[in-house]
Amino acid sequence: MNIHLKILVDKEKSELLKLIADLYSHSAENKSFIHSRYSVGGQTLEPYRSIISESLYPDVYKKQPIRLSIGKKAISDYFKATKDKAGRLELMVRYLETGNKFTVEFGDIDEQFYSSLESMFERILAVLRKQSADVQEKYFSRLEDVVSSARNIGWGYYDYISDIFSEYESQTKGRRRKQ
User: Fold this and answer.
1) Distance CA 60, CA 156 (A)
2) CA-CA-CA-CA torsion sign (89, 92, 98, 102)
């Protein structure tokens, strides 16, 4: 047991509850963590979806920057709090869709941006390959829409995601159910 846990083990229940209350009120991040961990309010994905949306589709008229790392951190924070793999997959797809929508609307970004989206697309497909046909089908059309809408995007982005999606489609065709 590490030293920090030993300190906590020796505390009274009331002290621990006060500590948790203090941590809860200390930051929005702590509040989201606790809400997600204990499913407070039943909307555990919403704060994380909002962070991803704000990070990958910022208000360009207010000169807000794209913050890829904040979007990725939201996915990681959600999973640390909940261990919910389905929710993590949903947030990964949200990250991809939001970034893709931004570049379709505002044009070319930079290599780091496209590399991040490509990497997330790869991770999503890797996760989906291990899922049931129902889960694969749930996300198939959303990913297909991402690829289709990226048709005129440069930096090799469209070519890459189109290629890996086509490969995924041919590998999973028999597993996915037809609608």
Assistant:
1) 24
2) negative
